[in-house]
Design brief:
The chain has about 200 residues and is α+β, with helices and mostly antiparallel strands. Helix content is about 20%, strand content about 20%. The chain folds into two domains: about 50 residues, no CATH class; about 110 residues, 3-Layer(aba) Sandwich (Aminopeptidase).
């Protein structure tokens, strides 16, 4: 089960997110309006050739790999960094503020919040990847949110964790994150929490 964490995008796109997957041979990716994430079964030249058929010229995609890649000459690395993966093995106590489920009608506000906080890629259709929760200020504005990004049969990644810069973080930041993790464990899944690409 933990081996799926070495290639989490592949495992998501071949299990829980298979209906979102665009596929060609040894490569998978999300639709460009959902996420820039893509994966290779194995990082071979043939797999990169398959991925090239799924990517438009000049388009950027992001890959998560367990070790540095040896890139073919027709690919360029724009940014490379390590990403921490953490596993939540136990349910947490309910948060003091109960986040509200977010839906497609909330996407404009979600896009505005993620633009202000830059937690990583959040696009118009990213909400299709899983459940998202938010906290609203007294005036109704969305001020914090978190949700699921990568989902496989074993894990759900918590992503888009953000709080509006003008809001006191210690007071509400843990809310959506904790509720999302509790929600995942209730479905018998562990949760991964990681920084965005």
């Amino acid at each position: 089960m933990l081996e799926s964490l070495d290639n989490p995008i592949w495992f998501a796109l071949t299990t829980e997110h298979r209906l979102l997957a665009r596929s060609h041979g040894l490569a998978r990716r999300y639709p460009p309006d959902v996420s820039p994430l893509a994966a290779l079964l194995y990082p071979t030249n043939d797999a990169f050739a398959d991925l090239q058929r799924l990517v438009s010229p000049g388009e950027h995609v992001a890959l998560f790999t367990a070790s540095p890649l040896d890139m073919p000459g027709d690919w360029q690395v724009d940014r490379s960094r390590w990403i921490d993966q953490m596993i939540c093995e136990a349910s947490l106590a309910p948060p003091p503020v109960v986040p509200l489920p977010l839906g497609t009608t909330d996407v404009p506000e979600m896009l505005e919040l993620t633009a202000a906080t830059e937690p990583g890629p959040f696009l118009p259709q990213t909400i299709q990847m899983g459940s998202y929760f938010g906290i609203r200020a007294n005036d109704g504005r969305l001020v914090a949110m978190a949700g699921e990004r990568l989902r496989s049969t074993a894990f759900a990644e918590i992503s888009a964790v953000c709080t509006h810069p003008r809001i006191s973080r210690p007071r509400i930041c843990a809310g959506p994150h904790d509720v999302s993790r509790s929600s995942d464990s209730g479905r018998g899944k562990d949760s991964i929490s990681s920084r965005q690409v």
